[in-house]
Amino acid sequence: PNPQGHFRHPLSPRWTLLLSVGIALLWLPLSHATNFNCHKTCICASNIVSCSKMNLSEVPLGIPPYTVVLDLSYNDLKRLKSEWTSVRLPNLHNLLASHNSMTFLSSEAFIYVKQLRYLDLSSNNLQQLDEFIFEPLVNLEVLLLYNNKITTIDRAAFITMINLQKLYLSQNQMSRIPLELVREKSRLEKLSLLDMSSNRIAVLPIDELTLLPAYIRNGLYFHNNPLHCSCELYTLLAHWYIRKLNSAVDFKEDQTCVLPGPQKKEVPVFELSSDYMNCSTFKEEDQEAFLEQMLFLACDTKHRNMFKSWTLPGNVAVIAESNQTAKVLRDGTLQISPVKSDDSGTYTCFATNEAFNETIYIVLKVHNFTMDRSGDTLNTAYTTLVGCLASVVLILMYLYLTPCRCFCCPNKGKGRGEDSIHSSMLSVTPTHEDPALKAEINRHVAFTDSKDSQGQNGKFNPNGDEEEEDEEDQDAEAGSLMKGKRKKSVAESISSVFSDTPMVV
What we know:
The chain is of the alpha/beta class and 505 residues long. The chain folds into three domains: 35-276, Ribonuclease Inhibitor (Leucine-rich repeat, LRR (right-handed beta-alpha superhelix)), CATH 3.80.10; 287-373, Immunoglobulins (Immunoglobulin-like); 413-505, no CATH class. The chain has helices at 13-26, 206-210, 214-217, 231-242, 246-249, 272-276, 376-400, 435-440, 468-477; strands at 43-45, 48-50, 69-71, 79-80, 94-96, 104-105, 118-120, 128-129, 142-144, 152-153, 166-168, 193-195, 220-221, 256-258, 266-268, 287-291, 295-297, 307-312, 316-317, 326-328, 334-336, 345-352, 357-370, 426-427, 444-446, 503-504. The strands form seven sheets. Strands 1-2-3-5-7-9-11-12-13 form a nine-stranded mixed β-sheet, with no helix packed on it. A hairpin with a 7-residue loop joins strand 14 (256-258) and strand 15 (266-268). It is elongated. The relative contact order is 0.04.
């Protein structure tokens, strides 16, 4: 006790301070007590930690939680385990792990780095990507997987990466394009670049690729693949080239295919229109419409989120809330309702944003009939044909099935065994009274013009006599008029086609 009778504490204030510091150190996490040293193991520059080219076989423990960029490239990492970091790195946005020897990714490798936006796993030895392997990376925007040995990708490997914009899968060993990433109902909405070049793709799903929006086709790369040559492939790329899509323009010389045959010759796709396969030269097709329908014209731009305006044929601007039949919808699509015949022509879409300008032309052809009456032309032709056939049948019936023809009318037109001379012959009473002639023949009268004394059907004999050969000529030429035995002409019977007087035969 001191002079005042109080007891002194056995530890001095200095020892009390040291004891407090020691107890606090015991409560620190073991990972913070590792040998991580920014001056020896890695290089630290503010919130950037670079461990590149340090011959590391494991990720060093104790990465500071404030790290934004972590560079682990050009080392000898074999696996990316779930415990490569035992603490959360909430600020880590960029993880670079290229040029290592990784063959394995743990399904829990990214649970502590959910804020990643850029992940580089290129130039490793990865062979497959399992289901939900990138599930925690909902904020990732860029994923680099090129120059690996990937052969298969599970269809659900990227399903949760709703913010992914660029995916690089070139220089692998894949045989298909992961269409589940770009197809209509399963599409990653923000994906604008998918690099599938330099793989082992032989056949493309051309029909599905044709239906993709232009902003996806613009960033869909599949050059340097052993594609089978076909005119469909040529048409696809020719269309993309005319639209100036980057995937066709930037790598035009690298767009190759393999000709059919044992030699497997590799040729440029854009030369298939020449001697190789004689593919038809590509030409943009006009869009067709029908009267009174509701039509939508899409402004299929190469970039997203662009302001779009339209002009009608004749360079007439589409104005909102006007009495025009055309209006621009919220997504930039032009709606025309109802379609009229004078809506045919060229429509122009102007797309702009802060960095790009694009102009798209659409040629519209309007048919002069409605969609539900498209068969009117065929029906009209069919009706006309039936009408013609009916007319022919009626004419034939009139000619051959009339109730009474001339042969059924007694004592008119001709006698028994004679041909009829219908409208050009008139039956008259004879001017002479020869009973023999009267009994044998019926007399007919024909009126002809007289030009000279000699006709084509006989000779005029003023004496009333005719040579025997004249009678034979008359029989041959007038056979259609009389089939019975001819009598020699008398003076009163004159045969001439040039006589104004009635000719009696």
